[in-house]
Amino acid sequence: VQLVESGGGLVHPGGSLRLSCAGSGFRFSIYYMSWIRQAPGKEREGVAAINSFGDTNYADSVKGRFTISRDNAKNTVHLEMNNLKSEDTAVYYCAAGLDPNYWGQGTQVTVS
Length: 112
Prior knowledge:
The chain is mainly beta. The protein is built from no helices and 11 strands.
C-alpha cells in the first residue's frame, strides 16, 4: 500500500496551492479519504474528508477556502487550498480509511 503526496511548498498569505495524493495497493475507490495536518507543537487536525460517494466534510477553520475532491479512475485525491493563511502552515498528510488505515509520508505547506 502506498499513498504519495505532492504539491506542497512555500506560498504567501492569500495564495493558493493544490495538493495531490496518489494511492496504490488497495481498492482506492471504496475508501474514505482524508487530509490531516500537523503544525509544529500542535496535535494532528483533520482538515477535509471525502467518502466513496463523494460526500465531503471540512474543519471549520478551512470551510470556504479548501476543497477536497477525488478521481477514482486515477486513484487520486486532491486538496485545493485558497486564501491560505499563516496558520495553515503544517505538514499535510493524505490518509485512507476511517481509522485511518494508511498514511502518506506528508508534504510541507508553508504560508509566509
